[in-house]
């Protein structure tokens, strides 16, 4: 007699098909009740480049009837610095192949400054009129002042509205300007990226090499067809030892990075867009390091082909991400520390290389980015398994993340009171410690054996119940 598993409307992983015999399933998932939310949502976990992903996912403007009204969030952009360093900013935009309109930003900024001066002049004139009204005046003189005050009020209302609109316009245009670039970053596209180092050697096989898709099919590790029926292409079910490997990779990675001083977090996978706009805070403690596990969602999974087939590029994946909030003077050192996560890959016996990415591959937030690419013999190429970015204050200016320096307070000579040091924007950095699907690809392809089995690397064995090898299931 066939058994049907009922659909749970709150489940994030579903099976709904007639099944022969009894089926026992153990699922790990997060559940989201399908209620109409009373707030705007970003369906994106705050991991990866945690804050940057959220900012990128958030709509930059509020749009009604196709008319841009105002930004949904405002960055603390240093327009004066941009104006004073126009040539360097223009070169940086060109090197990154981005479409920011610097000339328009500066034109709008100058207009905004001029309009602001005019508004301030009219406000001063209005105050002068108001002060004159306090004295003893002839009726005719008072009437003239009343008329002047009325005219100033109307003119100010118009100009103040124009100023608000102009501020919004310059903000929207300026948000397209990317972060500046570290002077050592190579200029150009992907081909201009610079090799930093290479660890280990490619494994030599004396038998035909399989890719992870074939290995997974033969060892019953994933099911792409069933996932496509439920969720669409580029989704997948992990099965059997692949599930254990996912959990092992996550737990092993968390264990290792916690030894390096990171505080573990799990994050919501649905967040209010208003939280992204308003999540500023003022830490007063030491530099802060977090490591988070979450599911991540990618809208564009790449074109079909061997380069993106299987688990390599998918719509949903889990990963462990490291995130650092630090003082500006410490961010370069932390960036070097983050890339040392490559030691984890070395301990697994993986051959990889680290690359200093060229300007054309930095995107907007990164000041400098190092990628780690592992050799994947089934795909016959290197594939990115980790990335470490220093975003300086690009994200914190958008998210309002400040800190108060610990310097001694200064004394206000006029009032004789001590004043604390002014707040500064923190620097943010992020690095992937383990992107699970890419690591599964890497491990399955590199540790495949001639008999079709796959050896599990020693560091992961305690996290999979001591299993040393994944073998074909008996029929």
From TrEMBL:
**Keyword terms of this UniProt record:** Aminoacyl-tRNA synthetase, ATP-binding, Coiled coil, Ligase, Nucleotide-binding
Q: Where is the Aminoacyl-transfer RNA synthetases class-II family profile domain?
A: 296-457
The keyword Cell wall biogenesis/degradation appears for this protein = no
Q: Name one GO biological process term.
A: seryl-tRNA aminoacylation
Single annotated GO MF: ATP binding
- E.C. number(s) listed in UniProt: 6.1.1.11
Q: Per its record, how is this protein called by name?
A: serine--tRNA ligase
Q: Which residues bind L-serine?
A: 298, 321, 430
Name the coiled-coil region(s).
Answer: 105-169
Chain positions of site Important for serine binding = 432
| Annotated positions binding ATP | 298-300, 314-317, 384-387
């Amino acid at each position: 007699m066939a058994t049907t598993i009922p659909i749970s409307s709150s489940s994030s992983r579903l099976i709904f098909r007639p099944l022969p015999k009894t089926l026992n399933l153990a699922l790990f998932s997060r559940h989201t009740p399908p209620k109409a939310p009373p707030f705007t949502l970003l369906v994106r976990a705050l991991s990866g480049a945690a804050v940057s992903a959220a900012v990128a996912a958030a709509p930059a403007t509020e749009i009604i009837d196709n008319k841009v009204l105002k930004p949904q969030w405002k960055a603390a952009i240093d327009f004066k610095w941009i104006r004073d360093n126009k040539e360097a900013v223009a070169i940086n935009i060109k090197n990154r192949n981005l479409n920011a309109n610097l000339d328009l930003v500066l034109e709008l900024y100058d207009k905004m400054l001029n309009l602001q001066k005019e508004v301030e002049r009219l406000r001063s004139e209005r105050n002068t009129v108001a002060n004159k009204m306090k004295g003893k005046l002839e009726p005719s003189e008072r009437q003239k002042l009343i008329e002047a005050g009325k005219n100033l009020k109307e003119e100010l209302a118009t100009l103040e509205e124009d100023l608000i609109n102009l501020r919004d316009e310059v903000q929207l245009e300026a948000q397209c300007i990317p972060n500046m670039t570290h002077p050592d970053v190579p200029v150009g596209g992907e081909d201009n990226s610079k090799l930093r180092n290479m660890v280990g050697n490619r494994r030599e096989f004396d038998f035909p090499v399989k890719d992870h898709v074939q290995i997974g099919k033969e060892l019953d590790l994933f099911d792409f067809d069933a996932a496509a029926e439920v969720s669409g292409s580029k989704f997948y079910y992990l099965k059997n030892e692949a599930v254990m490997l996912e959990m092992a990779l996550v737990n092993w990675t968390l264990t290792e990075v916690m030894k390096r001083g990171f505080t573990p977090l799990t994050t919501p996978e649905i967040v209010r867009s208003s939280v992204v706009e308003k999540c500023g805070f003022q830490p007063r403690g030491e530099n802060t390091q977090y490591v988070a596990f979450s599911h991540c969602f990618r809208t564009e999974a790449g074109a079909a082909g061997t380069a993106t087939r299987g688990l390599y590029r998918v719509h949903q994946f889990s990963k462990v991400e490291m995130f650092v909030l630090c003082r500006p003077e410490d961010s370069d050192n932390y960036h070097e520390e983050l890339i040392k996560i490559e030691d984890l890959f070395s301990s697994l016996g993986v051959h990889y290389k680290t690359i200093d990415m060229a300007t054309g591959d930095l995107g907007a937030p990164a000041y400098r980015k190092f990628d780690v690419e592992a050799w994947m013999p089934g795909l016959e190429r290197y594939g990115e398994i980790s990335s470490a970015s220093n975003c300086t204050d690009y994200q914190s200016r958008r998210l309002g993340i400040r800190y108060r320096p610990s310097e001694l307070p200064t004394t206000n000579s006029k009032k004789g009171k001590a004043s604390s040091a002014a707040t500064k924007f923190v620097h943010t950095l992020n690095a992937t410690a383990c992107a699970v699907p890419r690591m599964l690809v890497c491990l399955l392809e590199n540790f495949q054996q001639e008999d079709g089995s796959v050896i599990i690397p020693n560091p992961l064995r305690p996290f999979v119940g001591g299993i040393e090898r994944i073998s074909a299931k008996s029929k």
